[in-house]
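Form 12-C: Joint structure prediction
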Amino acid sequence: MFVPHSEIDLKKMFEELSISSLDDLFTHIPETLKLNDGLNVPPSLSELESISDFENLESKNTQNLICFAGGGHYDVYLPQTVKSLTMRPEFMTSYTPYQAEISQGILQVLFEYQSLICDLTDMELANASLYDGATSVAEAISVAINKTKRDNVVISNGFNPNTKEVVNTLVDRNKFNINYVDLVDYLFPEDYVFSQDDAAFVVSLPHYEGSAQDLTSIVHNAKAAGVITICYADPSMLGILKSPGSMGFDIVVAEGQSMGSPLSFGGPTVGWFATRKELARLVPGRIIGESRDSNNTKTYVMTLRAREQDIRREKASSNICTNQTLNAVGSTIHLSWLGPEGLYEIGYQAIQKASYMKQSLTDNNFNVLNHTSSLREFLVETKKSAEEVILEMGSKGFLAGIKYDDNQILVAVTEKRTKAQIDNYVESLMEVDNA
Amino acid sequence: MHSGGNASSLPLVGGAPEPTINQLSKPGRRASRFPKLDVPVTEINNSAIRNDKPSLPEVSEHDLVMHYSRLAHRNFAVDVGFYPLGSCTMKYNPRFADYVAGLNTFANSHPSTPSAFTQGNLEVLHELEKFLIEITGMDNATFQPPAGASGELTGLLIIKKYLEENNLTNKTDIIVPDSAHGTNPASAKMAGFNVVEVSTDVRGMVNIDDLKELVNENTAGLMLTNPNTGGLFEENIMEISNIIHENGGLVYYDGANLNAIVGVCRPGDMGFDIVHSNLHKTFATPHGGGGPGSGPVAVKAFLKEYLPGPIVEKNENSYEWYMPKLSIGRMHGYHGNFLVALRALVYMKLLGKEGLDTLGSYAVLNARYLSSVISKVIPLAYNEPCMHEFVATVKDLKKSHKIKAYDVGKALLDKGFHSPTIYFPLIVEEALMFEPTETQTVDTLDDLAETLKAIIDELQGDDISLEEYPKNLPVGRPNELIPAKHLTVNWGDFELLELTE
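Section 2 - Result
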């Protein structure tokens, strides 16, 4: 499969190498290591045969669940234009753009990506992508630790538990202390006191539970103590929320899935990373810059390369090499397709529809725990166990949300949801939870 | 000439520089349209809400499509030409995988969807695990790591946790060959280990005597590719892994060069305890201009409980998520790069036994053939039979004609080929590293060798200014000094001056 060698080709190649079979290529490999009977795997399939195989496999997933789950990944409408442009083979099948002369396409898209993210977050320097939102938080913490040489990380408890697990894995807890701070009434306490040992303050906008607050004064207090402030933002809400830069943050990271990537069962998506120029030397991953060629023509190149692992080896700012470029291309094209009005509308409609849903749930005797402080995502209390409710809602055609606690579900609304879907959801939930 | 090797077949479009999407923006234009809001409007009261609109370009959909299509025309890719790029395995990416990855619930499952509703997705990961552990000779695998470097870090964190559990915290040294990829020492450092470099002998293999001297009670493990970064099979691999094991360390296989041995031999049979694979190399998923990749990690059974999770387990009638008991934790927010894993499964199923048994053989055949024809033009770094890639050197041409590996690479771009990997491995002077992969025809390999010969002849000419190459592409050689002094990294007027360390 995909091997082009004809008998005539093989004859020519064998002659050049003075061999008579493929096995002759491996006389230098110890006999004891060789696979004599080959691999124990199924026989080759033609494309035609495997179509039904894969369609059958896909059909084992429950079909057409209407998505009310969020937690960082959102069912935002992904336009066909964005999908087809992103999947152009010149982008999709290209290598990392080390050779600038034949990679101006992807280099310029990434330059635009960095610029769009800087504009949207009010930052000065973005990298060309990290793996996902969760690993971006860990990378940002690592920058803060390297910058401040301090040992303590203050992180809001209002994060997706998976993100916290990634942070716990990637930040060496033998050397550094991670201090999770509980939200009070679903908001980060305004009077939190930072210390001179704190390297980083990490907070989510909105919080995982869906509540949001202007974080300006908290950021101010953290910075007064010399702490590097890190905002984990929801990109699909940046059209309607104050920018993290305007609140004073030093670093902005994000799970970029909702901008340009399908839900993809969580991957591949993209981690956004943007910061201020003071931290340029500590930024993980690739950065694209504008230069000139020998004829003084504008030329994009990979830059600040001395931070990276292939040059700096064990002294690199991160070990990241392969990143999520194609998903960053998706973010670029999606943001350009949306424009200021479109990105605003995504956020506005999501909040309006969530507001309608919260009221409807409340009117039907459900307790929405953070009704007033939440925007497009909120917590609903259930009588039955959350797990049971989610499974039963599934059989009614809904992905009801994410289990938050034994009897609490985190529900997310995007601009894609309709009034009819919301009404049906509430009705179904009444049936399920009152049964 | 059949492919590349002919300036008239250059795939890239030049012309005037393309403006940025921001320069195309005009107030009031837009591509996006949404349905009218169908619920009653409520007043939103929250201190985090902004009063103005965000700053984004305003463009029509047609302008948007033309802009990004024109940029695509300025980009080289596997679908456009030949990448003889050592260490990167730039093989053909089957189009059929695009279809499968686009199927409804594969593409559109929310990652928090319970396993009861995503049995198909879990089966994809389970099926791929079966292929992967058979190919590598291991017992269990995780798909959490989203890239090779993350796979390396995963492997090292497993070693660390394993040593902690066995009260061997004195073991803090990770041995890495001096020819290793930069990610190896960077990952080892991130995992909190000391990096110890072992040298390479004159034949291009791990220097066993040096290794014996470096190994002691503090040795935590060894990271190795086999074939190594010189494209040579480490013939003494069993002795090497025994030396590490006898000292209580673990042996880690960097899957960067796995393509060479698929169907030939297996890391698990060579004494490796942990293996990462790059699905975006060996298993033909598209490289995406730099990512996404996928770096699954496979281990021997005694390390299963250390894997990052959750991992998929098959029960009697269903697939379920399982969190290994001594897990190092999570390496990714959800399940790794699922759609990349799916594409790899498509590739493996299409290849099946017939294709996988001979995969390494054809990859090596192409490289061995190319090395034979290229060695008539420029000398090889090692006088040993190569596997899937090989290293040539122009150090003599540098002495005689000031021709550097960089110049040869840039001149090749002009002729429709991607450059080989240059200046790697670091231990070979003026290195050019070629990896043709198994999906190129012998005609294309001949074209490359002939073109290389023509370039070397041309560059040795009297009136040549090496800096002028490439001459026929959208842009020429970039000025490397400008960004360092005067860095422009976004389209604002922000310039990064006087950088401080």
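Section 3 - Comments
The mean pLDDT of chain B is 93. The CA atoms of residues 214 and 485 of chain B lie 42 Å apart.
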